[in-house]
Design brief:
This protein has about 220 residues and is an alpha/beta fold. The chain has a single domain, classed as 3-Layer(aba) Sandwich (Rossmann fold). The chain is built from six helices and ten strands; from the N terminus they run E-H-E-H-E-E-H-E-H-E-E-E-H-E-H-E. The strands form two sheets. The protein has a seven-stranded parallel β-sheet with strand order 1-10-9-6-2-3-5, with helices on one face. A three-stranded antiparallel β-sheet has the order 4-8-7.
């Protein structure tokens, strides 16, 4: 898959550019179809991106945001990706669609979330881990081989079981936006751009992919 790469001096500038890319996609989708439907990840740098995005002029009442993945933790826990999402956008009229990770039956929760996913996402935002994971598609996890479900439950990773969109769900994205910051991501970013399928991130497919990186992640 071909990626367009934009590199910025620091994480703040990269986060602002990523927010700008989402804004551009949202405005175009709303103008064309009356609604923007996206999915966002957690991870490093996302709070700054969310803060920048929330300040942009978007018709928020025409925005729906799904989660790419979520850690199994109580509501409001700082480990939850939705905690940052709600903090940034909870005061807007945007429709936020959290994963129900507090339910006892996580497999059922995953199945129910799959039923409300759109046929297409206008944009999916992804991060990149030093080990090459994206979403909660982690090296060695059986979830990497799931092709018959849109949402799946992972093994524990960094102390948390997670729900994640699978490759078939991510393939519904009309556009991917990667935000990658930090020197610890440099090797993984090189592998992603080289199409090295030994890392989970390189197995994600979409017609359009924009990688926004800071200088440290880009190896500058």
């Amino acid at each position: 898959m071909e990626h367009t790469v934009e590199q910025f001096a620091d994480p703040a500038a990269a986060s602002e550019r990523a927010a700008g890319a989402i804004t551009e996609s949202a405005r175009a989708a709303i103008a064309a179809r009356g609604r923007f439907v996206g999915a966002v990840s957690g991870g490093g740098g996302v709070a700054a991106m969310f803060a920048a995005l929330a300040g942009h002029d978007i018709a928020w009442d025409r925005v729906t945001l799904f989660q790419v993945d979520e850690r199994v933790a109580p509501d409001g826990d700082p480990d939850r990706n939705f905690t940052a999402l709600r903090l940034a956008f909870g005061d807007t009229p945007a429709e936020l669609r959290p994963m129900s990770v507090t339910r006892p039956d996580l497999a059922a929760a995953a199945g129910d979330y799959a039923t409300v996913l759109p046929e297409r996402f206008d944009l999916v935002h992804l991060g990149l881990g030093p080990d090459g994971h994206t979403a909660s598609l982690v090296p060695g996890d059986p979830v990497l081989d799931v092709v018959d479900r849109l949402v799946a439950v992972t093994r524990p990773y960094q102390g948390r079981v997670r729900l994640t969109l699978t490759y078939p769900a991510l393939a519904r994205a009309d556009q991917l936006l990667w935000l990658v910051t930090g020197a610890d991501k440099a090797a993984a970013l090189r592998a992603l751009l080289a199409g090295d399928r030994s890392i989970p991130a390189a197995r994600v497919r979409s017609g359009v992919s924009l990688v926004v990186a800071d200088a440290a992640a880009g190896g500058a």
